Amino acid sequence: MATSSLISSGASLFFNKISQKDAGVSPAQVITTSIQQKKILSVMAPQTSERKPSTTGSVKTGMTMTEKIFARASEKSKVSPGENVWVNVDVLMTHDVCGPGAIGVFKKEFGDNAKVWDSEKVVLIPDHYIFTSDERANRNVDILRDFANEQNIKYFYDITDRGNFKANPDYKGVCHIALAQEGHCRPGEVLVGTDSHTCTAGAFGQFATGIGNTDAGFALGTGKLLLKVPPTLRFVLDGEMPDYLLAKDLILQIIGEISVSGATYKAMEFVGSTVESLSMEERMTLCNMVVEAGGKNGIIQADATTFKYLEDKTSVPFEPVYSDTQARYVAEYRIDVTKLEPLVAKPHSPDNRGLARECKDVKLDRVYIGSCTGGKTEDFLAAAKVLLASDDKVKVPTFIVPATQKVWMDLYTVPVPGSGGKTCSQIFERAGCEPPNSPSCGACVGGPLDIYARMNEPQVCLSTTNRNFPGRMGNKEGQIYLASPYTAAASALTGLVTDPREFMH
Asked: A GO BP term, please (predicted)?
């Protein structure tokens, strides 16, 4: 009898009936042996749908870091891309722009007297529209304060005296940097926030993503979210980082390569010798802008650099995860960073990539150094390094907006390497920059008309921020070039988009 007719005969014996002498051989061998002996043991492969996945040996299905975090958070042994799972949230952050909406959803759905699922896992950070006389913006902070008092929220970084931020010891500044500095970012955890750049925290080896007010309201009440497991793109960055490049150049290169939709609902995992050499703040820059490529989250595995940063910031135990060698990726991109040059993103999209040196005829009206992307201590040290290399003063108004109160203090206390002990603030003052302003999101997202450095006229601005859509920093006719702090400082000195190598020897 032919094999094909055996298979079509519908025999119902399974391999679990194989006699002991057949044990240890493959299904194909058993079928062949059985046919030769005219004794049919089985003609179909064993069902596998109900078999538990193996956890040891070479047949184990590997998982990426993101998949492992989803599996742990959903209390499953394994998850796969595309699967919808209920995950337990470790930290939920909301700020003054979205907090009132999220709180409104929470109260509407759970009741006016409902309590949040865990008052120590909710972080409230006013940061966007703080230093303004706009009554509605001020009211938003009041709503956060009332909710914090009502719910006994442990981590509410309040501000009451807007005239002098230093009079508010609890006030921090930009949420994404404050989360890291205050120890809320921990490897292996799930952090969600009502801000698209919550993905910044992926630098700590955790799943971090932005969510909407409805999801936030639900999570406030339950501590859970229904999320789809994202597939992962792998970016291998190798080579020693040239001294004229920063992480901002790396992420602009990647977004320019894959486009603003190239990572839609995907995890972007960064590995390689270059990534390993980056500081935590530079890693945060890399992960911060994955959302500009449509990414669900960015992630970098925790290592000695991560653990050192966290030493004095958190006492909460955490458990890092690492991608398996046999993990599956949608695609892998390899970048030799030694071949890259300083970049800008031209108006009006983060993927409109251009070489800084090829935009040297673009005349600027202003330069802005700040935001979650470019307002960290190391960003200002980088800008100061370029300004220090020149005796010239800036040719256009140059605005300095530190991300947090701690960064503001660093500007006045941390000496710039090679400066003979000078601080960033001294170097900025000598170069003719505007004095460092109160820590906040500032003009990065426009906001009320009186927000510091908001573009109220159709000007051309080079900025260390993360988005250059029309109207992003205020005026809808404004043009925004995104660049690294190196390029921002060099451009401030010339009044034109400038390759920082002109000042770095």
From this structure: L-leucine biosynthetic process
Task: Round to whole Å and give the CA distance between 172 and 194.
Answer: 17
The hierarchical CATH code for the domain 345-502 is 3.30.499.10
pLDDT at site 22: 38
SS3 state of residue 289? coil
Q: Does domain 69-77+81-337 have CATH number 3.30.499.10?
A: yes
Which tokens is 236 given?
A: 């291998």
Q: Token pair for residue 338?
A: 């030694």
> CA nearest 124: which of 47, 216, 199?
216
Distance (Å) of CA 263 to CA 290, 293, 294: 8, 5, 5
CB atoms within 10 A of CB 273: 13
Residues of the chain with pLDDT under 70: 1-59
d(CA 53, CA 347): 49
What residues contact residue 327 under an 8 Å CB cut-off, 6+ apart?
Answer: 62, 63, 64, 67, 232
Q: Note whether 387 and 431 are within 8 A (CB).
A: yes
Q: Provide the mean pLDDT of the chain.
A: 91
pLDDT score for 46: 38
Do 345-502 and 69-77+81-337 have the same topology in CATH? yes
